Amino acid sequence: MTAGMCFPVPATKIQPLMPLCGPLPGRYHGIIMARVIRILGIDPGLRRTGWGVIEADGNRLIYVACGSAQTDDTTSLAERLVTLHDALGRVVDEFRPDEAAVEATFVNKDAAATLKLGQARLVKKAIVGAGHCDKAQIRMMLGVLLPKANPGSHDAADALAVAITHAHYRQSAALRGHRP
To answer: Catalytic pick from 57, 72, 79, 103?
Structure first.
């Protein structure tokens, strides 16, 4: 062959080896999360409601922000609820979460309350690895999972733990083929 010789290319459609968008065939990584999901975790309370915002990008968790909304114990229930509503409304407006998770509150007096206690222990188990732990253990694990987080209150730390638990739940649900 000589340099500069051209060979005609047949006019056939060439199929790409991989799809140009969507999940890769035969790989589960593509179905977990197609995009970064921003999650708002809420630890409700009438005195102080904690909130935490994280982003889940596959297995990676990214700290965004956290804080708590505090009410005045001397005001009426309605005024306290309005204060919490307004504070959480500002959080939603500022951070625009895609999903939210709220820790169920409980009073251990009946079967439903006991189930809610089980949910709270599930959050602790997801974060620390055990259903029984103290606030210091939750903060320690938050430091491991979200190194940039420095929650100013236990309520904010608990809210971040709720958001992390939700992120883990949605990822495992995606792997099982369920919509979270």
So the answer is: 103
